[in-house]
Amino acid sequence: MWLSWTVGIVTAIAGLIIGSFLNVVAIRLPRGESILWPGSRCMQCGHPLRSWDLVPIFSWLALRGRCRYCHAHISVQYPLVEALTAAVFVLIVWHFGITAETALLLVESGLLILSATVDARTLEIPDTFTFSALGVALVGRTLLLWPAIFNVLLTGLGSLLFFALLGRLMRRLLGREALGGADVLLMGTAGFLLGWPILLVAVLVAALSGLLFAFVSRPFLPEGEKLIPFGPFIVFGILFALFLGQPLWNLYMQLYM
Ligand SMILES: [Zn+2]
């Protein structure tokens, strides 16, 4: 019992620290800045931040989301990504135990949270992030499932092809980009990571949560800013399906078959 608590607490702390690092990468990498140098600064006044300004979640709460030096607002992205990463890490370790699969899922979820964060900030995801997520899912699953890799390989490739075609079709019908290249790569990642039929749960949850958000947030978005990034919803769908995909699919089969 105490061992599982220790593992949980260590995982949560590791999640907070990695979430804090993902925040830095999400902001600096798309701008072509170095991740390691200079140290963290206030984005408004440029004041270097000390270690007690950088404690995940707690510093943001203690300072009520403002810079200690110039009182500028600090984005809620910081504590959100830290809390989310910690929560997802703990769920993975709790659900999958201390296994090779857990190692794959920790790396993968970090890359996915990073992609979702950048998409939410800038409405695009650098290829480095999406191709890394895709590559890790493909290689990781191949190594873990070898030689029974037929399902995940076919699901991943099929998903890439299907959503690439769907993206082209939507662009022709709508006259604008609705399902970008990054979204297609994330859907492929979902296929390699989840396999068939769990991919269906991820796609359904992504589409429904994205539509729901678009519907609810529409009145609050300023005119001309009606574009909503789809990446965060795909990532939500993948993480949801990772934990609840199989039980939901079993329930569905019992009800309708
Ligand atoms: Zn400041």
Could you walk me through the main structural features you see in this protein, from its secondary elements to its overall organization?
With 257 residues, the protein is an all-alpha fold. The chain has two domains: 1-95, no CATH class; 99-257, no CATH class. 70% of the residues lie in helices and 0% in strands. The chain has nine helices and no strands. It has helices at 2-28, 58-62, 77-96, 100-122, 127-145, 150-174, 181-194, 198-217, 231-256. α1 (2-28) crosses α3 (77-96) and α7 crosses α9. The longest helix is centred in the first third of the chain and has 27 residues, at 2-28. The protein starts with a helix and ends with a helix. The relative contact order is 0.09. Bound molecules: zinc ion (ZN). Zinc ion binds next to loops.
